[in-house]
TrEMBL record:
This is Endonuclease/exonuclease/phosphatase domain-containing protein. The lineage of its organism: Eukaryota, Metazoa, Ecdysozoa, Arthropoda, Hexapoda. SUPFAM superfamilies: DNase I-like (SSF56219). It comes from the Eukaryota.
Length: 259
């Protein structure tokens, strides 16, 4: 697929259970710049001083080891951005100080009793777009950003891969046979292989040169997602939203029974 995820050993800020739990990878895309992606979590009662201290250490470590990389830090921070508070302001100050921005300010967690924005995505660049998705799996919405590749390529180019091959077509074979007919290998084959190879190899390379060839890359096939699966997913999502909004035990039981 041309995409790999690798660890960066030099970025070794230690996680702290409940206060600052994270996982970091560098995403490398073939023929593109790499991205650093961080998943971050702080429990509702996690120590804020530890969280802010560790977040600053992470920003500094990334800046030191990968100063030119685009960075995305996403997670459940349990700091509500819909309510003005000291902890919200402290987080905004730290994020801004290190050249990052918080991309969401609308409700990301909705229950029958409340709505809050405790999830967010921090970036050191401006995403092309950002949006919330309703997966129907949790009271948290899914946060997403879109990043365009730095090298703009046409759709045709993006679906092709350049490889090097020899062409054993009829014209090349005829040239090869004709060239061999003009050489006398009778003594070289049996007496001196090096002399034979020295004469044979240039003929072969000349008649069958390595040439760049565009090879079409097959797109991932999603035919396994049947219409029945799509309908079931949509029904499950609808039932989930109904039971979340109404807080009715009977509706909740119906949703769980469907799942």
């Amino acid at each position: 697929s041309g995409v790999t995820a690798v660890k960066i050993p030099k970025i070794n800020v230690k996680s702290v259970a409940s206060d600052f739990e994270y996982s970091l990878s560098e995403i490398r895309i073939e023929n593109e710049e790499s991205f650093i992606v961080v998943a971050l979590y702080r429990t509702p009662d996690g120590n804020l001083n530890t969280f802010f201290k560790k977040l600053s250490e992470l920003f500094e470590s990334i800046a030191r080891v990968k100063p030119k990389s685009k960075v995305t830090i996403a997670g459940d921070l349990n700091i509500d951005f819909l309510i003005d508070s000291e902890k919200k302001q402290n987080l905004c100050d730290i994020v801004t100080m290190y050249g990052y921005k918080l991309n969401f300010s609308s409700p990301t967690r909705i229950t029958a009793e409340s709505a809050s924005c405790i999830d967010n995505i921090m970036t050191n660049f401006i995403p092309n777009s950002k949006f919330l998705l309703e997966p129907g799996l949790s009271d948290h919405k899914a946060l997403a950003i879109q990043i365009s590749p730095s090298k703009q390529e046409t759709k045709t180019k993006s679906n092709k891969k350049s490889v090097v091959k020899r062409r054993y077509n009829k014209p090349n074979l005829e040239r090869f046979v004709s060239a061999l007919a003009g050489e006398d290998f009778s003594n070289q084959v049996f007496s001196n292989y090096e002399d034979f190879a020295q004469n044979f190899t240039p003929i072969f390379e000349n008649c069958f040169p390595l040439m760049p060839v565009s090879k079409k890359i097959k797109n991932e096939n999603f035919n396994w997602i049947t219409n029945g699966i799509r309908v079931s997913c949509e029904t499950k999502r609808r039932l989930f939203l109904e039971q979340r909004g109404r807080g009715c035990p009977a509706v909740t039981d119906h949703y769980r029974g469907y799942c």
